[in-house]
Amino acid sequence: MKYMMFVCTDTSPDTDEAPEPDIDAWVAENDQAGRRLTGNELAPTASATTVRVRNGELLVSDGPFAETKEVIVGFDLLECADLDEAIEVARAHPMARWGRLELRPFAAPQ
To answer: Is residue 110 part of a domain?
Structure first.
């Protein structure tokens, strides 16, 4: 089952002083196991462009639409047997401690 894992910042990071997991090791392990299909860090939110259409009019604005302190900073496309496996993969990601990870399955094709 495919999951999109959004990598997000968080205003309440973990305060545990244990060593932070290594992102390069996480990527290598999950790439080798075939659980991570692709992923990347995103450019800063200042580079975002928001596109909307309202009443037939194109509205384009600089920056993210939502005013929020928590932002999506990257993503990973995962292939896991089930949600439990996806949770375990996310649990080992460094941003599970410093940010938050949102797992979302892909909708069934229509």
So the answer is: no
